[in-house]
Specification:
Elements: H1 3-18, H2 24-34, H3 41-51, H4 56-61, H5 81-97, H6 103-106
């Protein structure tokens, strides 16, 4: 990560911590006040657009908890998260209930 990206990230975190809306003007002001050299204004614009309407604190708190959100259900619309977990548990239970076939069921064994 370059110094420009790092400075812009820190500036966005500062604004989010203070509860201020993240805009490119505010990011550029913080970066200039901090005295970080050679940060192009495009970085502030990119970060401001990416974080527009997002709760940065919520994003940071839920970094590792969104693993299954991108997977789409096989049929139908979007299902609630609890429903998806229940369906996964039912599939596991179904697999446990099925008896496994053995060589004896097929009429031959290992040493026949």
């Amino acid at each position: 990560m370059s110094n420009a990206e790092l400075a812009t990230s820190y500036a966005a975190l500062i604004l989010a911590d203070d509860g201020v809306d993240i805009t490119s003007d505010k990011l550029n002001t913080l970066i200039k006040t901090a005295g970080v050299p050679d940060v192009e204004p495009i970085w502030a614009t990119i970060f401001a657009k990416a974080l527009e309407g997002k709760d940065v604190k919520e994003l940071l708190l839920n970094v590792g908890s969104g693993g299954g959100a991108a997977a789409a259900p096989a049929a139908g619309g979007a299902a609630p998260a609890a429903g998806g977990e229940a369906a996964a548990e039912e599939k596991k239970e179904e697999k446990k209930d099925e008896p496994e076939e053995s060589d004896e069921d097929m009429g031959f064994g290992l040493f026949d």
